[in-house]
Amino acid sequence: MSLVNRAMRAVRERGLALLSADRPDGKPPGARDTEDPALFRPLVYGDPDRLHVHPTAILNNALINLSSGNVTIGEYAFFGHNVSILTGTHDWTKFGAERQVAVPPSGRDVVIEEGAWLSSNVIVVAPCRIGAHSVVGVASLVMGDVEPYTVVAGSPARVLRQIPRPDAPAAAPAGPDAGEAGRVGAG
């Protein structure tokens, strides 16, 4: 096993052990109660102190790479299976072993705000912010910010529609199907 592989294995094992110490039940943040805990446990690479997960978030079996930035996951955010959050990158101008280890130490943060839903097989590439109550469609590639209350999908992810905000006033009916309220002079 190469030196790089041994180092990554040590970080992964240490990271999972430290994350498990954060919860009284010994499970890592974002884990769910299940018969098969491995299915609902995120795999974390990098310094676990860079991961900030609200206790109500559900991460399932996500891969979270913390090599080059912090990851913050907000209240009631949830992931489908196999979501990857990648803060790390490599210097493509380097070659061989140098390319493997040439990773920026910081500056590539990911913030996933309250109530955001990342469907299965989504890949998020830092730096980016996924806004509150937004939805990312299955197998999408997110490479930039997603506005709150927005549905995005695709590779790269594109805006499909806006989600009505619960506090927004209802629009007045208009057009031929509006009934009496939509007609001029009605009432």
From TrEMBL:
GO molecular function per UniProt: O-acyltransferase activity
InterPro entries: Hexapeptide_acetyltransf, Trimer_LpxA-like_sf
Keyword RNA-binding: no
Claim: Cytoplasm is one of the keywords in the record: no
Positions of region (Disordered): 166-187
Top-rank taxon: Bacteria
UniProt keyword terms in alphabetical order: Transferase
GO cellular component: cytosol
Compositional bias per record (Low complexity), positions renumbered to this chain: 168-181
PANTHER family with a match to the protein in the record: ACETYLTRANSFERASE C18B11.09C-RELATED, SIALIC ACID SYNTHASE-RELATED
Similarity section: Belongs to the transferase hexapeptide repeat family.
Protein name: Transferase hexapeptide (Six repeat-containing protein)
Source organism of the structure: Blastococcus mobilis
Species classification: Bacteria, Bacillati, Actinomycetota, Actinomycetes, Geodermatophilales
